[in-house]
User: Fold this.
Amino acid sequence: SFNEEYCEYDCFVDAGRNHCIDRNPYDDDEGREEEFEPERYMECGQFELKDDNRRHLEDAEEEIEYYLGPYCANQGGSVYLGMFTDETCTNFA
Assistant:
């Protein structure tokens, strides 16, 4: 059967116009992990950990929250992305 999305994709690829394509419809998005986007953490922000059915401490009263944010190198000149335990990104995890 005819699929307009596949047809359009094939047409752009055949014409060498890959820059006109938003996504490849032949790629299966199901089961694909979400890509890490460092630009989301140019300022301190809460980091969402995936559960992945890992073991958790049953008696933990509250879930530990982590934050990602930029910090400067000791001598300056470089900026790194670090993991912190506070929402102001001052206490390294």
